[in-house]
Amino acid sequence: MSATTEAPVTTGTQTPAKSGGWLVSLIGAVLVILGSMLSWSYDGTILDNLSLNFNPAPLQRLTIILALVAVLLLITARTRKLGQWLDAALGVRALGLMLTVFMLLTLVAITLESDGLINVNPGGYVTLVGAVALLVGSRLLPLVQLRDLGAAKLPGWFEILSIAALMAAALFGAAYALGLTDVWNFVLCLAFITAVVLVLFRTGVMTWFGHVSRRHKKVLTLASFAVAFFFPFTQNGSDANMSIATQVLIFAATAMGLNIVVGLAGLLDLGYIAFLGSGAYVAAMLSESAFATIDWHPPFIVVVLLGACVSAVLGLIIGSPTLRVSGDYLAIVTLGFGEIFRLAMFNLDGTNGPQLTNGPNGIPGIPDLRLGSFDFGQSHHIGSLELGRFSNYYFLLLILIGFIILVFARLNDSRIGRGWVAIREDEKAAEAMGVNVFGLKLLAFAVGAFLAGLAGTVKAHQDVAVSPGQYIFLESAFLLAAIVLGGMGTIAGVLLGATILKLLPEKLRFFSEYRLLLFGATLVLMMRFRPEGLVASRRRQLEFHEEDEHLAEVVENQLVEEAK
Predict the structure, then answer these.
(1) Comparing C-alpha atoms, which of 290, 259, 299, 321 is closest to residue 451?
(2) Three-state SS for 349?
(3) What is the reported pLDDT for 409?
(4) Ranges of the chain whose pLDDT falls below 70
(5) How many C-beta atoms lie closer than 10 Å to residue 448's C-beta?
(6) Nearest to 187 by CA among 523, 494, 503, 533
(7) Rounded distance, CA 442 to CA 156, Å?
């Protein structure tokens, strides 16, 4: 049930409380703008200099933007025609909450960076008071019954332009956030991005965009890949950010393979990182490294296929004897397989077993890829723009993940994908309907392992070395967390979850000691408030809505019985 139907009101005369709420919210937004024009800190060396009056720093400009959006939404709430389509009240509530959080974080940052709360100037307190007033006033605004945004069909060119604008905003927003070197600036920028996304969802704009994206799916896909393609050109040759981007793509490609096993087939695999490791070790052993253990160096395309096939065979080997169990028992067996792989890589050192992996030393010194005359280890120039080593691997990984997404989408929409979903929902019922349960489970393991092996072969060259310590259980847990966080069975959700779980630890290294605590708390909150993930599968969304409707019907029947 939509949150906008909690307290529907008529469009007639507003009560004093509701009119007062609108006025308090407007005053709060104005105070935020005025406070942001004043100095926030005595110390001009922190947070890009917040010490100047009437010369707002970047962080102050962000609060001004949010306050102006709040003013526009408040005006929309008084406009009957627009107010039927946009839920301005919920949007203002989200802005009031996020502005309050933003200012509290800012005061904490000033306190920690400049040795005391005494260094906060009056402008900071004025902005905080305005944010709190906006939050309090927004709680008094009436909620309205919105019209169906799916019926709001605008001209096709406008919808396509909206897709392009959103993708461009995502590109420049990511470039700006990654360009921030100060930790607190990055944290506050994340708070701003969260506020924007929350407002888009709460006002109903993202609901409309969901309908638009379904009507223009090809345009959205093309725009998404265009944004990903142009991302390196926004980094000014920064190897640091491009290194993070390549790690995100490898992680996302591997998570997409696990999404077949967990998201579609419903099989809990806790040792999936072993398939990524097997592909990486195959590439390392067949490379031209001085420490390579196999004296055969085929072309890279052959190495990719061999690494993927070896991973697929391992998937079949682990799947054949273990897929007759399910649930917790399957999870324990796959966890054991992951540890067996890691220990086997330790022991294939020529002493305890064949000389294949150099034991705990791994295989270092893996040379960069060369495809024809193109050397991935060299910088290349396009006009005045320099593309470094990591940018080269980024484009290769972009092609790879495009292929993996294509495979996943085709399988998801095929008869095989429907069979996997049937097994996930009710294995006994699927078997009774003639679905080859064991064969499809085995295929899910093999295909997922194959895709992980593809990513592993590129990872070995990008990392320059492989060792058993890279493929521990914790990495499998993070892959599974990316799927749960983003949304099981979805493409966009897994990409988003992988980006969050790989990007934030790199940018928030000061929080590394509490990383597991943060991840655990995040997953608990997700299970409580959004169990379907950040990007819900339409199938799962329908399931949750049906459960909610059934629960509401049961409660209603109980109330009727009690009334009788």
Answers:
(1) 259
(2) strand
(3) 92
(4) 1-18, 82-83, 146-152, 538-564
(5) 30
(6) 503
(7) 44
